[in-house]
Amino acid sequence: MTYVLLVAGLALLLIGGEFLVRGGMSLAGHFRISPMVIGLTVVSFGTSAPELVVSLDAAILGHPDISLGNVIGSNISNIAFVLALTVIITPFVVSRREIIDDMIIMTGTFVLLLIMLNDLKFSRYEGLILLALLLAYIYRSIRNDRRHLIARPADIKYSLPVSVLIIILSSLGLVTGADLLVNSAGEIAAGMGVSERVISVSVIAVGTSLPELATSVMAALRKKNGISIGNVVGSNIFNVLAILGITASVKPFTIKDTGFTRDMYWMIGIAILLIIMVLPSKSARLGRWKGIFLAVVYFSYIYLVFFVR
User: Fold this and answer.
1) What's the rounded Cα separation, in Å, for the pair 65 and 6?
2) C-alpha separations of 156 from 69, 122, 216 in Å
3) Which of 120, 129, 131, 199 is geometrically suited to a Cys-Cys bond with 245, CB 3.0 to 4.6 A?
4) Which of 39-48, 87-96, 138-147, 300-309 has the highest mean pLDDT?
5) Is 176 a residue whose pLDDT tops 60?
6) What is the mean pLDDT of residues 78-90?
7) Is 27 among the domain residues?
8) Whether residue 145 has pLDDT greater than 70
9) Most confident of the following: 140-144, 178-182, 240-244
């Protein structure tokens, strides 16, 4: 039965990812907002919903290491697993001008998280700071996008109410699918006798990152490259600012496992690696070799998490 639920969860994630792209593109057309900004905001929030549910539940139930590990592990897997697999399946070109600032902001939020957790505590005050930064980030994204509004073609497939309804229903499908997947995968992983940190940064993180994987792959196959990479970068920013911000505001927590410091250094290092991959030209090609390299980095990290204490 556990494996049946795992497959059912995966199916919901794939279907939800497909319709979230459709609804997001239609919504972008109605408001004349670029696919990149939709990927960085609306789609990112929808695909980050599983992380929010898992982290908030874990904090309330007294498992803070799962809350933090889920976010850190998801951020690492979003870049080195989700984006890597996406470009291995379908390489694409990304405009450095459109995404580099957000990549720098993403890396900055990772560094801020490392500083905030220097004392292994996450206070309500720090959570509110993260939420304030989230609002500022959303405002900045929409404001900057409006400056390039001229002659933008509309991509409207559904009416505005239907577009919003599709986004809501597909996000709910993603949450449900992730819940089924994480619970079933968690039961399998728990039998391995590893710590909450190890489970959260690996099994649970990959499970909650599957919406990003489904959405990014579907978007790339549809040649919506802005949503593919915007979803990954935006989800990582949302994971820190929104998920940990909301979680800490509702339930301040203290971390038990000091191993998270190493995980955060990995997270920052992988973010810098992505920036380096995009920097060489104005239109950087994310080819299969870059995807394979990121995947090698990711599985090296997972190996160290499980087998090096």
Assistant:
1) 23
2) 38, 42, 20
3) 131
4) 300-309
5) yes
6) 90
7) no
8) no
9) 240-244
The residue written with tokens 């204490």 in the block is: 309
Q: Is the dihedral of CA 103, 105, 108, 114 positive or negative?
A: negative
9 residue type, one letter: G
**Residue 219 forms part of a structural domain:** yes
Q: What is the pLDDT of residue 151?
A: 43
List the domain range (segments joined by +) for residue 256.
Answer: 36-149+193-307
Measured between alpha carbons, how far is 151 from 289 in angstroms, rounded to an integer?
Answer: 36
- Tens of pLDDT, residues 216-225: 887 777 777 6
Per-residue pLDDT tens over the stretch 243-256: 999 999 999 989 88
Q: Is residue 170 part of a domain?
A: no
Three-state DSSP string of 196-249: HHHHHHHHHHHHHHHHHHHHHHHHHHCCCHHHHHHHHHHHHHHHHHHHHHHHHH
Residue with tokens 């489904």: 214
**Number of residues in the chain:** 309
β partners of residue 94: 284
Tokens 């697999």 -> residue: 85
| Distance of alpha carbon 13 from alpha carbon 123, whole angstroms | 33
Q: Which residue has the tokens 């400056």?
A: 147
The structure tokens listed for 121 are: 């505590």
Q: Give the CATH number for residue 44.
A: 1.20.1420.30
CB 153 within 8 A of CB 279: no
**29 found inside a domain:** no
What is each CA distance from 82 to 5, 198, 206, 236, in whole angstroms?
22, 19, 9, 12
Name the phi and psi angles at 95, rounded to 5: -75, 120
Q: Which residues pair with 283 in a beta bridge?
A: 95
